[in-house]
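Bumping with the actual sequence this time:
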Amino acid sequence: MKPEATKQEFLFFAGCMARLKLPQVEHSVRTLLGDLGIGLKDESRFTCCPDPVVFRSGSRDDWLSLAARNLSLDSDLPIVTLCPGCASSLLEARHVLDEDEKLAASVAARLKKSGLKLALPQVQHFLGLLSDSAVREDIAERVTRRFDGLRAAAHYGCHLVRPSNAVHFENPEKPVCLDELLSLSGAEPVDYEDKYLCCGRPSMDDATSGAIVEHKLKAMKAAGCEVLIVACPFCFEQFDLGQAILERRGGSFGIPVLYISQFLGLAMGRDPQEMGLEFHRITPNRLL
């Protein structure tokens, strides 16, 4: 498939998780956005966002300064991320600095020591781009492989919509963008018990984390889910690797996990190998 001429350009914030552990996810996001004419500029100086949960709990000031550094590296372009956690962290830092002039001045003074001037560019997760009506129409027109009747479950996760006062993405209680994107391919979005519950990955306790992911998988299985679609690298690993771990302990789910960019790439004619499906622990046989 030949990518369309670039319509708009963003600074691409890949984050740590996908780049280090899930290169197929990063590749699929780059490919999908390129096919839709959305250009991505790389910035080699980006660091961790940093993590909006663990890192911030250790030092709010350091979290804010590191996030501000990432925001200030290139103020000419808006930032798009592939990870909701990265988007949430950068957007919350942006919100805090925009609301508190005294704090912003303090952070600006820290950045000045590194030769940077504080900037607050626009930030969004790439699902924000796909939610645009014109982009969604473009995707629908490009679908060459339909998945009519495929029962697909969407997992939204926590950071895509939170904190809502900074992220401003859909209804934080009941987002719908993943379900709507799945429908473009003919797939049937499946509702299931505790659909909007956390995947369990942020828990610092392995037993709690395992219990949450097992509960979610059982609910999906009971609802007849054939594939699970996510938009967060941490959620992806929690369900893909977590499922493999549970199956070693006697569980049996067999629900393949795909990033939304991989799923849409397949629907738009991309090859399964090009989308990196061979790296998944649960093979999506119906989609091959």
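The tokens above came from a reply further down the thread. The domain at 145-287 is CATH 3.40.50.11810 (Rossmann fold).
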